[in-house]
Automatic annotation (TrEMBL):
<dbReference type="InterPro" id="IPR050982">
    <property type="entry name" value="Auxin_biosynth/cation_transpt"/>
</dbReference>
<dbReference type="GO" id="GO:0050660">
    <property type="term" value="F:flavin adenine dinucleotide binding"/>
</dbReference>
<protein>
    <recommendedName>
        <fullName>Flavin-containing monooxygenase</fullName>
        <ecNumber>1.-.-.-</ecNumber>
    </recommendedName>
</protein>
<comment type="pathway">
    <text>Plant hormone metabolism; auxin biosynthesis.</text>
</comment>
<dbReference type="GO" id="GO:0103075">
    <property type="term" value="F:indole-3-pyruvate monooxygenase activity"/>
</dbReference>
<keyword id="KW-0274">FAD</keyword>
<dbReference type="InterPro" id="IPR020946">
    <property type="entry name" value="Flavin_mOase-like"/>
</dbReference>
<keyword id="KW-0560">Oxidoreductase</keyword>
<keyword id="KW-0503">Monooxygenase</keyword>
<dbReference type="GO" id="GO:0004497">
    <property type="term" value="F:monooxygenase activity"/>
</dbReference>
<dbReference type="Pfam" id="PF00743">
    <property type="entry name" value="FMO-like"/>
</dbReference>
<dbReference type="InterPro" id="IPR036188">
    <property type="entry name" value="FAD/NAD-bd_sf"/>
</dbReference>
<dbReference type="GO" id="GO:0009851">
    <property type="term" value="P:auxin biosynthetic process"/>
</dbReference>
<dbReference type="GO" id="GO:0050661">
    <property type="term" value="F:NADP binding"/>
</dbReference>
<keyword id="KW-0521">NADP</keyword>
<dbReference type="GO" id="GO:0004499">
    <property type="term" value="F:N,N-dimethylaniline monooxygenase activity"/>
</dbReference>
<comment type="similarity">
    <text>Belongs to the FMO family.</text>
</comment>
Length: 401
C-alpha cells in the first residue's frame, strides 16, 4: 500500500510522515473500496483507521441478528463481488468475512489505532496535514471515508440520569439474551429500533417502542422481489412521486394500515423523503406482526424518564428495567476536518448528490451520498479515475524534477 517516509520527532511536534499517494481516513467499506479502485489504477494509498480492525461499525457496533437490509447485488464493493453462494441478504458475519477477503485480495493493510484529530490543507506547501495522536501525515490528497454513522446520537432526555436501570445505545446492543423477562423501553423506531424490539421479543423480553415522529414502513419484499429492486427499476421510467404512490399502494395492501397501529406515515412519500432528508424507510423483517399481536407495544413520545421508568406525552406511565436508545448515528467530520466549508454542520457534503464526492485542493469524500453501499461503489470509482489522472502527471513531474 502507500509508502511513507519518516522524519525525526522533536519534543514539541509529532513525528511527520510523507505519504506517497492519497490518505484515506476510515477503513470501513468506503475506505476499502476507494483504496482498491486506486490500486487498480496504479495509485498507492494509506488508510488511517481509529479502531483496531477494518469495518469497525460492522464488527463492533452492530447487533448479532443483523443482516444486510438490501439485497446483496446492491451492497457489493467494486471489482470483487460477493461469493456466489452468499444468500440474498448476507448476515453481518458473512458481510464481515467478505470485507476481510476484499482487503486481502487487494493487499490493503490500513494503519490501525490512528485516530485523526485534525486535517487541514496547507496552502503554502500544497499538502494536506493529517494529524493523529502519533503522527503528522502529509499528502497531496485527502479522502474522507469516516462514514455517515461515525458516532452514536445520544439525545438529551429529561431525567435520564436518574434512571436506575441500564441505558445503552444500539451501537453496544448485541442480543436480547441479557434482557430475558425484562421490560425494555426502546427509544426510536427506525430500522434499528424495529429490529432490536423484534430481537427482544425473541428473547422473551417485553419491549415498548417509542415512536415520536411519523415513519414509513415498507415490506422488505413485494411478491418475492426486494422492494428496493422494484423501486430502482421503476425510477428508471417513472417520476419519484409516482413510484412512491405505487410503493405505498402495495405496502398498504400487504401490510395493512400502519397508522392504525400507531405508526403514522409521513405526508411525503418514502423515496422523496429519503432524498430530501436522508430518512430511510423501515424495511419490515417481522417487527410489524409483533406490534400487531401486542408483543411490541407502541408508546408516543417520552416526556420524562424517572428513577424506575418513563412518563409519556399522552399521560401514560410505565416501569422499565432497561432503556435502549435506537436514536441513530451521525457523521463526525466537522470535529476533525478544518479550514474548508465543503461540509455542513452535520458533517455531510454541502454539494448535493451526485456531485458531493469532490472538493477543492485534492479533497474527496466517499460514502456520504445517503445511498448506502451502492453510493460508496460509485464514489470510489469516480475518485480513483480522478486521482489517477493527477497521479500520472504528478509522477511525471517528480521524475523530471
Ligand atoms: C445497523 C446498520 C445496518 C446497515 N445496513 C446496510 C445495508 O444493508 N446496506 C447498505 O448499503 N448500507 C447499510 N448500512 C449503512 C452502512 O453504514 C454503510 O453501508 C457502510 O457501513 C458505510 O461504510 P463507510 O465505510 O462509509 O462507513 P463506516 O462503515 O462507518 O466506516 C467508517 C470508518 O471510519 C473510522 N473513523 C471514523 N472517524 C475516524 C477518525 N477520526 N479517524 C480515523 N478513523 C475514523 C471508523 O472507525 C470506521 O471504521 C447500515 C448501517 C447500520 C448502522
Amino acid at each position: 500500500m502507500g509508502s511513507y517516509k519518516e522524519e525525526e520527532k522533536t519534543d514539541q511536534q509529532p513525528k511527520w510522515l510523507w505519504v506517497n499517494g492519497p490518505i484515506i481516513v476510515g477503513a470501513g467499506p468506503s475506505g476499502l473500496a476507494v483504496s482498491a479502485c486506486l490500486k487498480e489504477n496504479g495509485v498507492p494509498s494509506l488508510i488511517l483507521e481509529r479502531s483496531d480492525c477494518i469495518a469497525s461499525l460492522w464488527q463492533q457496533k452492530t447487533y448479532d441478528r443483523l443482516k444486510l437490509h438490501l439485497p446483496k447485488q446492491f451492497c457489493q464493493l467494486p471489482l470483487f463481488g460477493f461469493p456466489e453462494n452468499f444468500p440474498k441478504y448476507p448476515s453481518k458475519k458473512l458481510f464481515i468475512s467478505y470485507l476481510e477477503d476484499y482487503a486481502k485480495h487487494f493487499g490493503i493493510v490500513p494503519k490501525f489505532k490512528q485516530s485523526v484529530k485534525v486535517a487541514e490543507f496547507d496552502h503554502v506547501s500544497g499538502f494536506w496535514k493529517v494529524e493523529t495522536q502519533d503522527f503528522l501525515y502529509l499528502s497531496k490528497w485527502l479522502i474522507v471515508a469516516t462514514g455517515e454513522n461515525a458516532e452514536p446520537v445520544i439525545p438529551e432526555i429529561q431525567g435520564i440520569d436518574k434512571f436506575k436501570g441500564a441505558v445503552l445505545h444500539t451501537s453496544v446492543y448485541k442480543s436480547g439474551t441479557e434482557f430475558n423477562n425484562q421490560r425494555v423501553l426502546v427509544i426510536g423506531c427506525g430500522n434499528s429500533g424495529m429490529e432490536v424490539s423484534l430481537d427482544l421479543c425473541r428473547h422473551n423480553a417485553i419491549p415498548h417502542m417509542v415512536v415520536r415522529n411519523s415513519v414509513h414502513i415498507l415490506p422488505r419484499e413485494m411478491l418475492g422481489i426486494s422492494t428496493f429492486s422494484i423501486a430502482m427499476a421503476l425510477l428508471k421510467w417513472l417520476p419519484i412521486r409516482v413510484v412512491d404512490k405505487l410503493l405505498l399502494l402495495v405496502a398498504n395492501l400487504t401490510l395493512g394500515s400502519t397508522d392504525k397501529l400507531g405508526l403514522r406515515r409521513p405526508k411525503t412519500g418514502p423515496l422523496e423523503l429519503k432524498n430530501a432528508t436522508g430518512k430511510t424507510p423501515v424495511l419490515d423483517v417481522g417487527a410489524l406482526s409483533q406490534i400487531r399481536n401486542g408483543k411490541i407495544q407502541i408508546m408516543h413520545g417520552v416526556k420524562e424518564i424517572t428513577k424506575i421508568g418513563a412518563k409519556f406525552i399522552d399521560g401514560k406511565e410505565g416501569e422499565y428495567d432497561s432503556i435502549i436508545l435506537a436514536t441513530g448515528y451521525k457523521s463526525n467530520v466537522p470535529s476533525w476536518l478544518k479550514g474548508t466549508d465543503f461540509f455542513t454542520e452535520q458533517g455531510m457534503p454541502k454539494t448535493p448528490f451526485p456531485n458531493g464526492w469532490k472538493g477543492e485542493n485534492g479533497l474527496y469524500t466517499v460514502g456520504f451520498t445517503r445511498r448506502g453501499l451502492l453510493g460508496t461503489a460509485n464514489d470510489a470509482k469516480k475518485i480513483a479515475r480522478d486521482i489517477s489522472d493527477q497521479w500520472r502527471k504528478y509522477k511525471g513531474f517528480c521524475k523530471n524534477f
